[in-house]
């Protein structure tokens, strides 16, 4: 009968309301418990965690390609990033964070403690890469051309500093600073820094032999 149907409908509706009310109470309780755990998580911490997860997952991109990110995997040439045209389906290749020029800013210094594997008979000591000049050409926007100086202590106690003039580029697509010897200088070292930690201030760097790209040392670099 219609009366039965009405009562049944009201019964179901009431139970749904009760269930929703309970869910809301549970959510408030969870929120209260979460707030008791401490202060809000910093955005930088979240970005670092997301970057670590992304690094562990890896991608299926080929050499000279970079991932677009997002839920649907897509790779495009690293030369298509930040060129003024959206090539990723999600448009991420022109995102302002992806196209940040901060890693190549003049005066930027990235420092860390080098762990030497070869090339130098030295205990771990500080190394600094400092950007001294840059240029982003209008006709080739996916790269910023840079000049830099690599400096590190040869003898920590005597504070003898070795310096090397470098030149190269910063690639937006794979977020890599690639530096080789300046023209006219002895080709001793090159540097590769990969900004894979979710921001423009931290990078994993390698000091390499410029001819073979053999890795001489590694350091986790931080902007200073």
Automatic annotation (TrEMBL):
Residues 104-223 form the Annelid erythrocruorin linker subunit C-terminal domain. The keyword NAD does not apply. Disulfide bonds join 61-75, 68-88, 82-99, 119-216, 193-205. Gene3D superfamilies: 2.40.128.620, 6.10.250.1520. It holds the Pfam family Eryth_link_C. GO terms for molecular function: metal ion binding. The keyword Zinc does not apply. Ca(2+) binds at residues 80, 83, 85, 87, 93-94. PROSITE patterns: LDLRA_1, LDLRA_2. Keywords: Calcium, Disulfide bond, Metal-binding. This is Linker L1.
